[in-house]
């Protein structure tokens, strides 16, 4: 254990988590954590790019000596406590970020992102387990991820959860009070968590990174207060305020209604990062001119979800027209296309907005959403339909709207089994786990001549095609003559 503590201290020095003046302090914190009374300093010469190996040794020691139980959750809670011994104070991180920002916003975010990786707040070793690839469709080159990064709880942990009392602190996973929080069985530890204050249109927000990043520098920008998500004119102002301050980042918002919204509707927040999504590369179907906005480029995007793109050097024009789209869309109905604005007093229409800077101009994508259900589609008319639930049943949120699929972890094993069936090594009718894929299996067998050399490529492409169908289901105006005609008519009649 002495050796691992020396290694971790050296890691902290190499990654500038601590300075030489912090060494003894950090060592003593670690000795207390591991209930040790003696320590010998060693010279560590190895380059330490990652801390995973060190932490695993330390966690094994903690389990062996009864400090923690050997479960995924307790190991996660404890390794965060370990890294807390190397963490700079929140004020130090904020001061360093602000100093770097004066020189370059990109340098500031790079520093903060590196800190989030080095501190093991972003668990890179789990993210690397994700299966990711890119494939083309008729719209763009899509990005596919089978998400394996979130740990599964074992039966022992599930049993313990029965005895865990519900608490109201922090109110949710996004609240600023998570900084330094020790965590509990049903709430992750956050001692290695840091946030950066950012003012957006005179409102206090905070920048952090997602612990399970789905793309480069995947960040979350959240409201200081625990208030519900809402899409309105102020939303557009805040999104553009952020990309104005961080022009190398995009920032978008999940919709503010169930089914079409994200997983956390209780806390106002946005998601962004330093990444170019497939939606940005999509073709333009039509450009529309509005006399009242001569400097504003208004484009209808060739995308499975109905997207209007606004581009201008004039920020106010983008904000004003975004608000006009939202106001008009909220009250828009087209029964022939299954689009109804209201059921009694329940509103169904909202938008998913995405902001970025492009060649010094402000750009906003407004994606039209509707969350209505009916008997035929109880999960949502503009939601993945039942025939696609074998691939994806969950909400289509911001990240997927932009063309990055986040698919369930179960698909890793299911696709392996499906491949065996396609190659004739197994019988799909004898495997309960993949019977849900039976119609897809029949389609693939009829469409392709499978072999060991082509089956992986075929499955990757066909999985992408399924995801495109998922997005098409979520589109309110379909990409056919009738849908495009109605879409153009809607935009041309915005008042």
Concise description?
This protein is α+β, with helices and mostly antiparallel strands.
Describe what this molecule looks like in 3D:
The protein has helices at residues 2-14, 23-33, 52-64, 72-84, 90-103, 105-118, 124-127, 155-161, 233-245, 315-330, 398-401, 410-422, 438-447, 455-474, 481-492, and strands spanning 131-136, 141-146, 196-200, 203-209, 219-223, 250-252, 269-273, 284-288, 297-301, 307-312, 342-343, 346-347, 349-358, 361-370, 404-407. It has 495 residues and is an alpha+beta fold. The protein folds into 2 domains: 2-130, no CATH class; 131-165 and 209-495, no CATH class. It has a 10-stranded antiparallel beta sheet. The protein is globular.
Note the overall shape. globular
Strand order of the main beta sheet, please? 3-4-5-7-6-13-14-10-9-8
* Stretches with pLDDT under 50, minimum 5 residues: none
Per DSSP E runs of 2 or more residues, the count of β-strands stands at: 15
List keywords for this structure.
495 residues, alpha+beta, 2 domains, 10-stranded antiparallel sheet, globular
């Amino acid at each position: 254990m002495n050796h691992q503590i020396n290694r971790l201290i050296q890691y902290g020095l190499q990654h500038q988590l601590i300075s030489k003046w912090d060494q003894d302090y950090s060592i003593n914190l670690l000795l207390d954590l591991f209930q040790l009374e003696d320590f010998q300093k060693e010279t560590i010469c190895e380059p330490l790019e990652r801390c995973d190996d060190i932490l695993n040794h330390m966690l094994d020691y903690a389990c062996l000596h009864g400090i923690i139980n050997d479960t995924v959750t307790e190991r996660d809670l404890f390794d965060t406590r370990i890294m807390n011994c190397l963490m700079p104070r929140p004020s130090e991180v904020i001061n360093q970020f602000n100093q770097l920002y004066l020189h370059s916003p990109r340098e500031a975010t790079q520093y903060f992102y590196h800190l989030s990786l080095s501190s093991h707040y972003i668990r890179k070793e789990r993210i690397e387990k994700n299966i990711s690839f890119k494939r083309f469709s008729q719209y763009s080159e899509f990005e596919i991820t089978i998400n394996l990064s979130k740990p599964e709880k074992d039966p022992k942990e599930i049993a313990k959860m029965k005895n865990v009392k519900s608490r109201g602190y922090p109110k949710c996973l996004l609240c600023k009070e998570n900084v330094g929080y020790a965590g509990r069985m049903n709430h992750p530890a956050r001692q290695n968590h840091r946030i950066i204050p950012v003012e957006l249109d005179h409102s206090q927000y905070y920048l952090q990174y997602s612990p399970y990043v789905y793309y480069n520098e995947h960040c979350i920008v959240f409201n200081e207060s625990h208030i519900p998500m809402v899409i309105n004119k102020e939303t557009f102002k805040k999104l553009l305020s952020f990309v104005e301050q961080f022009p190398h980042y995009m920032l978008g918002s999940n919709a503010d209604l169930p089914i079409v919204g994200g997983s956390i509707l209780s806390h106002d927040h946005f998601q962004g990062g330093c990444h170019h999504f497939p939606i940005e590369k999509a073709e333009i179907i039509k450009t529309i001119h509005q006399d009242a906005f001569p400097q504003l480029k208004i484009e209808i995007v060739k995308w499975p979800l109905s997207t209007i793109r606004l581009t201008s050097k004039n920020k106010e024009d983008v904000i004003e027209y975004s608000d006009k789209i939202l106001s008009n869309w909220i009250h828009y109905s087209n029964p022939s296309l299954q689009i109804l604005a209201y059921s009694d007093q329940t509103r169904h229409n909202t938008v998913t907005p995405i902001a970025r800077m492009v060649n010094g101009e402000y750009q906003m994508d407004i994606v039209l959403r509707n969350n209505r259900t009916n008997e035929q589609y109880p999960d949502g008319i503009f939601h993945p339909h039942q025939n696609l639930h074998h691939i994806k049943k969950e909400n289509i949120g911001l990240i997927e709207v932009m063309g990055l699929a986040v698919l369930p972890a179960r698909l890793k094993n299911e696709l392996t089994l499906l491949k065996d069936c396609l190659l004739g090594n197994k019988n799909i009718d004898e495997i309960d786990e993949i019977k849900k894929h039976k119609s897809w299996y029949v389609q693939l067998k009829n469409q392709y001549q499978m072999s060991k050399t082509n089956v992986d490529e075929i499955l990757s492409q066909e999985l992408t095609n399924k995801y495109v169908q998922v997005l098409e289901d979520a589109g309110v105006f379909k990409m056919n003559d009738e849908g495009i005609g109605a879409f153009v008519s809607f935009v041309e009649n915005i008042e």
